Amino acid sequence: MTSLEMRSNPLFMRNGFKGSGKWEIPLIKKQIISLDNIQLIAMSDTRQNDILENTKCGVHCFIDDYRFTSTYFNPNRTIKKLSQYAFLLSPDFSTYSDMQYWRQLESVAHSRWVGAFWQSKGLIVIPTVTWSDAKSYSFCFDGIEKNSIVAIGMIGCKHNKSGFLNGYNAMLEKIEPIAIICFGTPFNEMDGNIIVVDYLASRKVVR
Prior knowledge:
- There is one protein chain.
- The protein is an alpha/beta fold.
- The chain has one domain (about 25-205).
- Helix content is about 25%, strand content about 15%.
- The strands form 3 sheets. Strands 3-4-5-6 form a 4-stranded parallel β-sheet. The protein has a 3-stranded parallel β-sheet with strand order 7-8-9, with no helix packed on it.
- The protein starts with a helix and ends in a 10-residue tail after the last strand.
- The model has no long low-confidence stretch (mean pLDDT about 95).
């Protein structure tokens, strides 16, 4: 492929969606879903031609990154399969505190790009928000409209409660979400309209 062809390849340039913030991170547009009886299924448990009971669920990526990296590197491959489900949470690419910040920024940008791509295909997408420390706040809340419904995961945050709560409160201030889909048990100190989803129940997939 020539350099000219590369510059006209949207999957190389990744410049097809409106960006926000200093780094022009792709924007996931605000979408509304019913918050009654939210149920989630893991990306790794999705199947082609899934049964009706499972397709009533939303799809989450609170699993190991390698299980969903294809959503970014080969995004067209799973569109038909994912279109069966009620809604999608944007991928939860990791932002570990011991990652260099360029990698954390990359993870956030990848998540937002995939969410924007899914929306461009007519799918309903709720942005997943993740952060590490205070320095990450300069980019990790970009690409999400104010007053959106957002999703967060509680798995792995118990070892640094104060750091998690600092980021959570910064997220509330920056995004002002109308609801937070919380995958796992929230801390008592967490404010907001929190919709709790049992992560164990999400793995009890009907087949």
